[in-house]
Design goal:
With about 210 residues, the protein is an all-alpha fold. Helices cover about 75% and strands about 0% of the residues.
């Protein structure tokens, strides 16, 4: 296995953790870093990127996720157990999603319909986030296990906040799909932590 393989896997996991943290932050505070949200939402529409890094516009867009990944691998960091819980739930959900061809096709068709608006308005435009949220609710939310994001009830009752969380969870699912596509699995995390850690450090240093 080459270092390139581990770099791809580190990118996927970093993006997954960044999406999980972003969703959690939106749920708790009603907002999140716009640049991070933009990077994540853009990734949902990059169907034919030439490399894992290209999905995120280069690794600079996911440096917060790389930092989280390094902490998780280096110290077994459990301080953000909510983030790990969300990421784990998305990884489990991804298996069910990929196994449901009809649902996968519905999601791809729905994203294709939103793609023009995303291109014209930008990834963080309220209408783009609203449409992504609606698509998520109509498709991904219908399969188990559902991803639960806990936060401040004041924000979680606001439709625009819920839509943004769901849109970011689409990006989390995108990262989970990438993780599997580049050969990631549970045993990599259990038995190949050091190569993943080295790859994540290299990516962060070069971002």
């Amino acid at each position: 296995m080459t270092n390139h393989d581990y770099r791809d896997r580190a990118i996927a996991l970093a993006a997954l953790l960044q999406a999980a943290r972003t969703a959690q932050r939106i749920a708790e505070t009603g907002e999140a870093n716009a640049a991070s949200v933009g990077t994540l939402i853009d990734s949902v529409f990059r169907f034919d990127a030439e490399s894992s890094a290209d999905i995120y516009g280069g690794t600079s867009g996911i440096w917060p996720g790389l930092r989280d990944l390094i902490g998780m691998l280096e110290r077994g960091d459990q301080r953000d157990s909510g983030i790990g819980r969300i990421a784990g739930a998305v990884l489990r959900l991804e298996r069910r999603f990929i196994g449901n061809q009809t649902l996968s096709e519905r999601v791809h068709a729905g994203l294709a319909e939103i793609a023009h608006e995303h291109q014209q308005q930008g990834p963080t435009h309220p209408q783009v986030l609203a449409r992504l949220g609606e698509l998520y609710a109509a498709t991904i939310s219908q399969i188990e296990p559902r991803v639960q994001v806990h936060g401040n009830p004041t924000y979680l009752t606001q439709p625009q906040v819920v839509a943004e969380i769901r849109a970011v969870l689409f990006a989390a699912l995108r990262a989970a799909v990438l993780w599997r596509q580049v050969g990631g699995n549970y045993w990599n995390l259990l038995l190949r932590r050091q190569p993943l850690l080295a790859a994540a450090r290299e990516l962060l240093a070069g971002h």
